[in-house]
C-alpha cells in the first residue's frame, strides 16, 4: 500500500462502524471525534454507490481466499460536496474478530 499525502484511512468493524479514522483529504473537514462510532456506509458513501460498496465489504469479510479488494467510490464530505476515491480494502483479524482496513486516495491523485 503506497502512502499518499492526501488520504483517508479507516478501520471498520463487521457492521461497518468506524473504529479508527485518519484523514488528510483536501476539504474533508471531518475530525476523528465526529465520526468514530458512526456507520461508514451511511455517513460517507454516496447513496448511488452504497450497494456496490457494501457488496465489496461483505465479500471481503466472507471470502477466505482474498484479503484485499480495490474499489472506487464517490464519498460525501462534510460540506456535502463529493470526492471520487480509490480505495484499497484489507481484511484484518484481531483478537478473533474481523475488521476491514480501508485506505483511500482521491482519484485525481492516483495517476
Can you characterise this structure?
With 111 residues, this protein is an alpha+beta fold. The protein has a single domain (8-109), classed as PAS domain (Beta-Lactamase, 2-Layer Sandwich). The protein contains 3 helices and 5 strands. It has a 5-stranded antiparallel sheet with strand order 2-1-5-4-3, covered by helices on one side. A hairpin with a 5-residue loop joins β3 (68-76) and β4. The longest helix is centred in the middle third of the chain and has 16 residues, at 47-62. It is globular, with a radius of gyration of 13 Å.
How are the SSEs placed, and which strands pair?
Blueprint: E1 8-12, E2 18-23, H1 32-35, H2 40-43, H3 47-62, E3 68-76, E4 82-94, E5 97-106
Antiparallel strand pairs: 1-2, 1-5, 3-4, 4-5
Brief summary:
This protein has 111 residues and is an alpha+beta fold. It is 22% helix and 39% strand.
Amino acid at each position: 500500500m503506497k502512502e499518499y499525502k492526501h488520504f483517508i484511512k479507516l478501520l471498520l468493524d463487521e457492521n461497518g462502524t468506524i473504529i479508527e479514522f485518519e484523514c488528510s483529504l483536501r476539504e474533508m473537514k471531518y475530525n476523528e471525534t465526529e465520526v468514530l462510532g458512526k456507520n461508514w456506509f451511511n455517513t460517507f458513501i454516496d447513496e448511488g454507490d452504497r450497494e456496490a460498496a457494501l457488496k465489496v465489504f461483505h465479500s471481503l469479510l466472507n471470502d477466505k481466499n482474498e484479503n484485499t479488494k480495490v474499489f472506487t467510490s464517490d464519498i460525501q464530505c462534510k460540506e456535502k460536496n463529493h470526492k471520487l476515491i480509490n480505495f484499497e480494502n484489507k481484511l484484518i483479524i484481531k483478537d478473533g474478530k474481523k475488521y476491514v482496513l480501508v485506505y483511500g486516495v482521491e482519484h485525481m491523485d492516483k495517476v
